[in-house]
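QA checklist item 7 of 12: single-chain prediction sanity check.
[x] sequence parsed
[x] length recorded as 292
[x] structure emitted
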Amino acid sequence: MVTFYRRLPRFDYLSPQTVDEALSLMFRYKGKAMPISGGTDLIPKLKRRAVKAPAYVIDLKQIPGLDYIKYDNAKGLSIGALTTIHSVEASLVVREKYNVLLQAAESMASPQVRHRGTIAGNICNAVPSADSAPALLVLEAKVKLVSRQGERIISIGDFFTGPGETLVRNDEILTEIQIPELPPAAKGRYLKLSPRQAMDLAVVGVAVLLIPENGICRDIRIALGAVSPTPIRVKNAEEALRGKRLDTSLIEKAAETCMAACVPISDQRASAEYRREMVKVLVKQAISACIS
């Protein structure tokens, strides 16, 4: 039986007022500090001792200039590290141009959590079931990582390295998510299987982005969540559909390819076999929704 500890373990709480101050603290306490933005993932984990308590928690919430959603016709969408999930789902430009991200945001947790938690925190937490991850994968997002040595821009496809693990170094902070401009015809769909419509983690998450052209699939991207150690793109399934006129047979084969690509676990929420079957179902539904 798992014991849930209600009290937080002891740590020093630091609240920098600028990015430079935060980076200096991350460098000074390198390997001993952990940054938080919303804290909706980290705090519960600390309470139940699911992660080792750091000596220092560096709260980024008081840093001005990191809570934004910016759009540029050439560069696309930029989301600051402190932008809440609610701000993303309330954004008119996200609703108009990046509906697959909107659907992912709307599916996450509860309204209370969405008002506090951030998209950046969701991907930095790096749980395989993170709802924003498949959507960002099909959008081919990039993340900006900043340290005292400079900044790095990393593709979201390379960002996740394992359950709870990313390429973020222990002296770095993720400051921005960058999403390129999409063709006007692009259509996206995120489907999440969970026991309840709210609060639950995804048993399976599927994101599809389709770019049609004269009835032909000019481009397609398919990403899966909660069915492998990290969220994944299924590029061989995409390749089988790209440049073709999609029909029931092609979609069925692509869904079977996605089913074969995943390596789910069995746990208290679902068996591995069930997850594989539902990948097939949801991939077909998501592709069909994008071409309807």
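[x] summary fact logged: Residues 12-59 form a domain with the Uridine Diphospho-n-acetylenolpyruvylglucosamine Reductase; domain 2 fold (CATH 3.30.43.10).
[ ] second reviewer sign-off
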